Amino acid sequence: MQRTRGRAPSGGRAGALSQELIVGAAVSLLDELGERGLTFRLLAKQLNTGTGALYWHVSNKDELVALAADQVLGHAFASHPSPEEDAGSGLRALAVAVYDALDRHPWAASHVSAPPTLANALRLLDRIGTLVARTGLPADRHFAVSTAISYYVTGVSAQIIAPRTTPDAAVSRDDFLARTAQRWEELDPADYPFLTRTTHHLRNHADRDQFIAGLDMLLVGLNATTDPRPPA
């Protein structure tokens, strides 16, 4: 992300900070207060510094939140097993680790960029591509399949998780699902035969299970289109 730094603050305080330290403190505040509650003034107080020192490392709030989301994404790699594992199980474990990391930090879900530009988002796509390359899939399909899996992991996670951070987040997930299910029940079954008979599942489904169900379908499809012989 391109930015222009201002002048270094007087007193050498900027040298006592680092972008990593600032972003880590921002993650904690975002977890506690949400994106609306994060301000440079509050962050400076948390770090016992001035706002000018922060601007020496991060140009604005948008950049700060994007970097914080990327740091959250990086934490998913720390909990993920060795990249030397089997491609199918490796992709599944990595995808679930990313979902769980974003689920612990809901504000971050909608800030993971696609196509990736920041360090850990790039590492995620590279890790996915490395695992896909271990399958028997032809090399000319690696990019399309790797990006499709990456977009599923980040995009579906955002679709499931990000609504919790909306201004209407005071409404609990259970209440929201109950209201939506009631609306589905009131639809005409002749026009909406599937929705009207699945309201019970909407009310009681687990978001993580929903994510994994789609992921497993994607990986089953990948397995069905690859050569079972390991690549040379």
Provide structural commentary.
The chain is built from eleven helices and no strands. The protein is mainly alpha-helical. The N terminus is likely disordered.
Number of helices: 11
Q: Roughly how many Å is the radius of gyration?
A: 21 Å
* SSE order: HHHHHHHHHHH
Q: Looking at the structure, what is the overall shape?
A: flat
Question: Which spans of ≥5 residues are poorly predicted at pLDDT below 50?
Answer: 1-14
- The rounded distance between the terminal residues' Cα atoms is 38 Å
Strand tally is 0
State the helicity in percent bands: 55-70%
Secondary structural class:
mainly alpha
- Main sheet: strands, sense, barrel: none
As a percent range, the share of strand residues is under 5%
Q: Tags for this entry?
A:
232 residues, 11 helices, flat, disordered N terminus
List the helices and strands and how they pair.
Layout: H1 19-37, H2 40-46, H3 51-57, H4 61-78, H5 87-104, H6 119-132, H7 142-161, H8 173-185, H9 193-197, H10 199-204, H11 207-224
Short summary:
By secondary structure, this protein is an all-alpha fold.
